[in-house]
Amino acid sequence: MTNSDLGAPSRLRDRIGRKVGKMLGQWGVFFRGFLEHPRMVGSIIPSSRFTIQRMLGPVDWQRCKLFVEYGPGVGTFCLPVLEHLPGDGRLIAVDTNPLFVDYLNRIITDSRFTAVLGSAEDVEEIVRSAGHDHADYILSGLPFSTLPGGVGERIVASTHRILRPGGAFMAYQFTAAVRDLMRADFARIDSDFEFWNVLPCKLFWGWKS
């Protein structure tokens, strides 16, 4: 078997992803991102409006100057966040997939928004490089149950350090893995469940005291 044979499945997957992306627009981009990085995308289908409403419900928008999102995908949460964010607020979306980062920076022209190519582990550096001392709220759709060992713990610890007192780390997941990780840093964790989502998901809010 040659090297070209070994690379054939990957090339075929990329071609399929590009074709689907062209045909289906936003949904195609999301599907292509899932094909390319399945372990880093929580679901093949974007979150429902019910999940978005319930997840963002506890946010005190008047006190939100910096909102950070991990794993924004095609921006399912980005536009609702921008609709509520104050005029002097800012939204930073962090993703390891350049496909999603490029797509978001092209379609979202709001000056309060920036998509950054990087890891949630580096959120402290990302926030400070943007000129902020802290974040008010951090939202994550990352699939913590499938992240490599130690990565989830480092993300949660960095998230806790960069949040302001009274701020929250918010996560929507299909498992409770992130709640178990959050317990090491967050004394108060609220939880809920959203049935009207594909698949139904668990919601968590870790509050920094």
Write up this protein.
The longest helix has 22 residues, at 3-24. Mean pLDDT is 86; it is low at 1-6 and 12-24. The chain is built from eight helices and seven strands, in the order αααβαβαβαβαβαββ. Helix 7 (151-162) links the parallel strand 4 and strand 5 (163-173). The N and C termini lie far apart (58 Å). It has a seven-stranded mixed sheet with strand order 3-2-1-4-5-7-6, with helices on both faces. Helix 1 (3-24) packs antiparallel against helix 2. With 209 residues, it is an alpha/beta fold. The protein has two domains: 3-36; 49-207, Rossmann fold (3-Layer(aba) Sandwich).
DSSP summary: helix tally: 8
| CATH topology description of the largest domain | Rossmann fold
How are the strands of the largest sheet arranged? Answer: 3-2-1-4-5-7-6
| Separation of the first and last Cα atoms | 58 Å
CATH architecture of the largest domain: 3-Layer(aba) Sandwich
What string gives the helices and strands in order? Answer: HHHEHEHEHEHEHEE
Strand-residue fraction? Answer: 15-25%
Kindly state the percentage of residues in helix: 25-40%
Shape summary: globular
> How many E strands?
7
* Corresponding CATH superfamily of the largest domain: Vaccinia Virus protein VP39
Radius of gyration using CA atoms only: 17 Å
Q: What is the residue-averaged pLDDT?
A: 86
Number of domains: 2
Largest sheet: 7 strands, mixed
Category by helix and strand content: alpha/beta
Instruction: Return the CATH class of the largest domain.
Output: Alpha Beta
GO biological process, one term: methylation
Protein name: Methyltransferase domain-containing protein
GO molecular function: methyltransferase activity
Domain Methyltransferase: 68-167
